[in-house]
Amino acid sequence: MTTEAIILAGGLGTRLKTMIKNLPKPLAPVAGKPFLYYLLKQLKQNKIERLIFSVGYKHEMIEEYLWEWDDEFEMVFAIENEPLGTGGGIYQASKLMNQQSAFVMNADTFYDIDFATMSNQHETFKSDLTMALKPMKNFERYGIVEVDENKNIIGFKEKQPMAEGLINGGIYLMNKNILTDFKFPNKFSFEKDFIETHYNFLQFHSFVSDTYFIDIGIPEDFEKANIELQ
């Protein structure tokens, strides 16, 4: 099983600015604890041992908080001197990977998947990348990921009102060298510039999990998380 994870924790939290003041988004207070607390607790429960943090904005505050977890994980940091986008952040962090694959997750999303089951599927399918997908109903905030009966990712649809569909849950399991075969600028989107443009050329599979999901990126869901994560 993969026991290494890249955590994207460099976001500015612009849409939450009035609610979290001068804190970086991963430290946004949710039910009395930094949101990052819930992710670290989840990772510990899923036997993840080594964390690679992609950080930028106010990274010193994040690093200071993580000192409390020093006995729980091995941790290293990939520091962005300027925002690199999700793709640039992941690419920089991937250079610090020890294993042949690593989970990748956003520090503003909690998705209660089974990491071991996802890892087993990734190995069985010999995937280059496995994307965790959340079934959703009556939504318009997220785009749609299309899959076939063999769990292959076969397409994407832009954000629009939908009665139901599968959305990108923000957790991936990717192989170490997946980005090195392509040329990208220093700053790029992992989702738009890589996944949505290369899924036909690589082995991209879906891992569907209808488990708890919350994205605190907008005030409404931030307030919701304060109730549900207690």
Keywords:
two-stranded antiparallel ribbon, 230 residues, seven-stranded mixed sheet
SSE arrangement:
Elements: E1 4-8, H1 17-20, E2 29-30, E3 33-34, H2 35-45, E4 50-55, H3 59-66, E5 74-79, H4 85-94, E6 101-106, E7 109-111, H5 115-124, E8 129-139, E9 144-147, E10 153-157, E11 162-175, H6 190-198, E12 204-208, E13 213-215, H7 219-228
Parallel strand pairs: 1-4, 1-6, 4-5, 8-12
Antiparallel strand pairs: 2-3, 6-11, 7-13, 8-11, 9-10
Helix pairs in contact: 4-6
Explained architecture:
The chain is α/β, with parallel strands linked by helices and 230 residues long. The chain is 27% helix and 31% strand. The chain is built from seven helices and 13 strands. The strands form four sheets. Strands 5-4-1-6-11-8-12 form a seven-stranded mixed β-sheet, with helices on both faces. A two-stranded antiparallel sheet has the order 2-3. Strands 7-13 form a two-stranded antiparallel ribbon. Strand 2 and strand 3 (33-34) form a beta hairpin. Helix 4 (85-94) packs across helix 6 (190-198). The longest helix has 11 residues, at 35-45. It is globular. The model has no long low-confidence stretch (mean pLDDT 93).
